[in-house]
Amino acid sequence: MTNSLGLYIHIPFCERKCNYCDFYSAFYNKDTLSVYLSALKGEIKKWGGKTHRPIDTIYIGGGTPSLLGKKIVDLVECIKANFCVLENAEITVEANPSSSNDFLSWAKQAGANRLSIGVQSGSDDTLKILGRNHTANDAVATIKKARQLGFNNISVDLMIALPNSNLQTLKNDIDFMLTLDAEHISAYILKIEQNTAFYKKYDTLNLPDDDATAEQYLYMCKLLAENGYNHYEISNFAKGENSSRHNLKYWIGEDYLGIGPAAHSCLDGKRFYYPRDLQGFIKTAQVIDDGESGGKSEQLMLGLRLAQGVDLSQIYGEIPEDIKKKTNLLEKAGYIKANLPHISLTDSGMLISNSIITELLENENI
Ligand code: SF4
Fold first, then answer.
1. Given this model, what pLDDT does residue 366 score?
2. By the 8 A CB rule, do 268 and 344 touch?
3. pTM to 2 decimals?
4. Among the atoms of ligand 1, which is closest to the Cα of residue 96?
5. What does each C-alpha distance from 223 to 141, 228, 231, 285, 307 come to in angstroms?
6. In angstroms, what is the span from residue 334 Cα to ligand 1's centroid?
7. Alpha-carbon distance 285 to 238, whole Å?
8. 361 pLDDT more than 90
9. Which pLDDT score is estimated for 98?
10. Which residue's CA is the closest to the ligand 1 atom numbered 7?
11. What are 193-209's pLDDT values in tens digits?
12. In angstroms, what is the span from residue 19 Cα to ligand 1's centroid?
């Protein structure tokens, strides 16, 4: 494991709530954002004084970081003043296609070298159903502006298994994503979470069933592979060397520090998080202990998210017989590629990764 650390900063504000979203965010208010930034900088300073490990990735996510406007420059300066940020650090900022051109310039000025843009779909009708406040053309214009500013590492989000979707609508969305020519695509299957607008009108959504969803996922994997995207993690695809260095830390089991309400951390063998409570964070930011990190089940769970898979002997030493048997069965069923002690998931396996991992871990005393 490297000595360097990833830093996640949460900007928990949105102008409106998208119909599917259960990320932690409050409604945007200029004054509350200012007060929040003071509290956030206080925490950055506190952590900077506690850990002297170099920072090699920064990820500013949300919520909607573009609501920071010019203050993003200030925020990154504060991080650099309090942590040792490596010269070649990956600095990602999330942006919406509705973000202003000015915000992209400020993000660049702040030192961002990677953008993650929530495009989601190339259909304006679908974007409306999702409750997004932008059009497909906005995405095209945002990426054009980002390229003009010199961003050469752009990720776009794509959602699949959407209301009224089928293989043809998915193909249209992927064709649209391909015209954007991003270095990286994060592709998520829509999940209807409680406390979202979609949850309340679930029956009216006309969602694909499980089989149709599986078909969409596998079709997407095929189309993206045919177009030069390497499927390196269940939901992530990259051209060339453009995998997300920050997100890889989560799956490889490297340390990261998350600051802001709902932000999670894994540091020096411990997991902890800030509660989903903006006012609590502003008043007295405190983290909640979430146990130890690095257990065998955790290593298996996280490692199998990656296409490179895991070396079971590194996790277990002697591989338990039960796991060997199950691996064999799962390989025959087409869900696992096994060359013991190494195993990895196939695309079909990635689709049901949770069930496979549960199956492998069942009856294990780990
Ligand atoms: S999807 Fe993003 S922009 Fe939409 S409500 Fe959630 S955090 Fe805000």
1. 43
2. no
3. 0.95
4. 3
5. 24, 9, 11, 45, 17
6. 36
7. 36
8. no
9. 87
10. 63
11. 999 999 999 999 999 99
12. 9
Distance 27 CA to ligand 1 centre (A): 11
- Residue 15 CA to ligand 1 center (angstroms) comes to 9
Q: Which atom of ligand 1 is nearest to the CA of 20?
A: 1
Q: Which atom in ligand 1 lies closest to the alpha carbon of residue 132?
A: 4
Ligand 1 centre to CA of 46 (Å) is: 28
Residue 298 Cα to chain centre, angstroms: 18
Domains of the chain: 5-250 (3.20.20.70), 295-366 (1.10.10.920)
Residues 172, 123 contacting (CB under 8 angstroms): yes
Separation of CA 64 and ligand 1 centre (Å): 7
Q: Which helix (H) or strand (E) covers residue 88, if one does?
A: strand 85-95
Among residues 115, 75, 4, 117, the alpha carbon closest in space to that of 259 is found at 75
Atom of ligand 1 nearest to the CA of 14: 8
107-127 residue pLDDT tens: 999 999 999 999 999 999 999
Query: Residues of 322-342 as b/e, b for ≥16 C-beta within 10 angstroms?
Result: ebeebbeebbeeebbebeebe
CA of residue 218 to ligand 1 center, whole Å = 26
**Rounded distance, CA 85 to CA 6, Å?**
10
d(CA 266, CA 74): 26
CB 82 within 8 A of CB 120: no
Within 13 A of 320's CA, how many CA atoms are on the CB side? 13
Residue 174 has pLDDT above 70, yes or no: yes
Give the pLDDT mean for 183-190.
98
- Residue 150 in contact with residue 107, Cβ under 8 Å? no
Indicate if the pLDDT at residue 363 is higher than 80: no
CA-to-CA distance for 346 and 331, rounded, in angstroms?
Answer: 9
The predicted pLDDT at position 364 comes to 58
- Residue located via tokens 């506190």: 46
Determine which residue's CA is closest to atom 2 belonging to ligand 1: 63
**Sole residue written with tokens 């995998």:** 243
| Site residues for ligand 1, CB cut-off 6 Å | 14, 17-18, 21, 23, 25, 62-64, 96, 118
Instruction: Identify the pLDDT of residue 145.
Output: 96
Q: Is the pLDDT of residue 52 over 60?
A: yes
